[in-house]
Amino acid sequence: MKKASTYSKALLQYRIKRYLRFALILLILIAYLIPVYEMFVLAFKSRTEMYSNYFIVAQPTLDNFKEAYEHGAYSAILNSVIVTAGGVSISLILALLASYAFSRYPVKGKNLLMFYILSTRMMPPIALIIPVYIMFFNLGLKGTYGGLVLAYAMMTLPLSVWMIKSFIDDVPVDIDQAALLDGHSTTYILFKIVFPMIAPGIAASAAFAAITVWNEFLFALLLSGIETKPTSVLLSSIRGERGFNWGRVAAIEVIYILPIIALIFWLQKYMLRGLTFGTVRK
Amino acid sequence: MREYILEVRNISKRRGGKVILDNVSFSVRRGEVFVILGPPGSGKTTLLKIIAGLEAQDLGDIVINGEVVNTFPPYMRNVAMVFETLALYTNMTVFENIASPLIAIKKDREYIEKRVREIASLLRIEQILDRRADKLSGGERQRVAIARALAKEADIYLLDEPFLNLDAKIRYALRTEFKKLKSIVGKTIILSTSDPHDALALGDRVLLVNNGRVIQEGVPVNIYKAPKSISIARYLTGNMVNEIFVARDSKGEITSNIGRDIYIDPRVLDTIVKFGRSSLILTNYIDSCIIDRHIVECDGVKIRGSFLGYEFRGSEYLVYARKEDFVFKSLSRKLASDLNIGDEVDVCLTRDGMLFFDGETGDFLG
């Protein structure tokens, strides 16, 4: 009898702990999602409804999206897509080649070089912005897509090299040697064997680099021009005749975050596989 | 045609200051199965990779078909290799894996299709040709790796630990198939293994290596019957040997490490005296040791001990007996049914399977 009561007490304790844990997770989730929800609500609210009906939309409207279009939000999104795609592509190509060399060849001072590459990420970007600005200005790259793409490729390269190298390290060197013995060229080995094998890792690196570039503000603010202004810069500069038009800002934000959410959902499987790649011995 | 298809001449290799291979030399005859046997870390894989041209030696020459190939890239040496890790291209199908060496030499599609199906049927993997290489079982992976090597019509096939990490059943099946395959393919095979059973069962000749050095070379029977040292005898049998240490005192009397209470046949005594060493190790493989309640005739060394138990091994029994701290093992087809643990038994180390080693150096005497 005593045994049974001890058992049910333990079960009760276990259940309470489980519910408390669940409640805590729910609380954190709500805290994170409220601003996102509010942003979506604001984007569909009319001006008259803006400061009433908190959390709900009585009469949804697309006016804010029309206004966003008129204020160049869509071309800013396109600019963001161009510089993100360009920066990430260049960074990935360079990172793939550099990582393979670091992983497979006896590069002298390899560890020091790898640390040096990473150390460039440790420096606060603001410390670099003035020399980078002067350099880009003198090279005629300021205000151009090329300039932004170059800056972002440079910015995301170190982390991509580190991530991709760790994925290549997990591919046994025997794979390369087997292909070499089969008679394949190094190019074939890289592009047909090794890189496809680490596709999840490449996808994960690409996603992280894309998020970094998409969200970047400081370099975009100083290096972009009127025609090349990405969304992060546009958002900071939106101001209506009578202060901020929150509805318009929210509409641009909705358009701004949708592509990156879509990208993350699309690459979610690879990102998770990429993050856990190599953690289990095969 | 030259007798030797491969000559390895004085190969030395260091890595990070550590000696991996030290002046290794041997020759491989055309069409034979040559086994490189040694414990893990003895330099077997490095040796195979040097032969394949995947690693460079510091000193020495690799000669294939009479030509020094030191400067030849791997694909020009016409060797194929099955790696210890198998090195399958997991992003490709089984078909693409097997076809890989043929694609590399730009064979036409029809030939590739025919050759891949031919090899797949030989290794009984036709039904998995469309499966991705990362979706295979251990045995299937092994077969695909062998198939990829066979697809290349090479002069020499290098197999690095081909039966490693396989469960006993698949291992046995593959070993049997290997013999069949060898007779069909009829090419020179160099196989590395750390398992003496594989080496003795599959090799036409065996090269024993340890710490990057050649320890012994010969046909399996000779290595088994005349191992160069006691440590080789222990390694070959997985320590399944019976050993007695005997010494001659100043008066010429013979004493053993298990006391005086043993019978040594006069012919064995004569042999001990003939070798003229102050001490010897008498070794006896477990298949030439007899353990029974009473043994009337023993032509080697007889010891009275106690029954310790047995292991049933299907067709045989591994019987244990002890004398003080020493345990003796015997492989026997029959077991006296009335034996209980602790019962007194006789242990006979027969003269026929007895090997003599120097007590101080461990060197083989006869």
What is this entry, summarized?
The complex is a heterodimer of chains A (282) and B (366). With 282 residues, chain A is mainly alpha-helical. Chain A is built from 12 helices and no strands.
Features:
heterodimer; A: 282 residues; mainly alpha; 12 helices; 77% helix; flat; B: 366 residues; alpha+beta; Rossmann fold; OB fold (Dihydrolipoamide Acetyltransferase, E2P); 2 domains; six-stranded mixed sheet; six-stranded antiparallel sheet; 20 strands; elongated
What does this structure look like?
- The complex is a heterodimer of chains A (282) and B (366).
- In chain A, 77% of the residues lie in helices and 0% in strands.
- Chain A has 282 residues and is mostly helical.
- Chain B folds into two domains: 4-228, Rossmann fold (3-Layer(aba) Sandwich), CATH 3.40.50.300; 235-358, Nucleic acid-binding proteins (OB fold (Dihydrolipoamide Acetyltransferase, E2P), Beta Barrel), CATH 2.40.50.140.
- Chain B has nine helices and 20 strands.
Overall spatial form of chain B: elongated
CATH topology of the largest domain in chain B: Rossmann fold
Strand % of chain B is 25-35%
**How would you state the average pLDDT of chain B, rounded?**
87
Distance between the termini of chain A: 50 Å
Give a short account of the largest sheet of chain B. 6 strands, mixed
Count of DSSP helices of chain B?
Answer: 9
Q: How many β-strands of chain A, per DSSP?
A: 0
Strand order of the largest sheet of chain B: 6-7-8-3-9-10
Q: H/E element string of chain B?
A: EEEHEEEHHHEHEHEEHHEEEHEEEEEEE
Tally the beta strands of chain B: 20
CA-atom Rg of chain B in angstroms: 25 Å
> How much is the radius of gyration of chain A in Å?
25 Å
Q: Classify the secondary structure makeup of chain B into a structural class.
A: alpha+beta
| Total domain count of chain B | 2
Low-confidence stretches of chain B: none
What's the helical proportion of residues of chain A? over 70%
The share of residues in helices of chain B is 25-40%
Mean of pLDDT of chain A: 87
Largest sheet of chain A at a glance? Answer: none
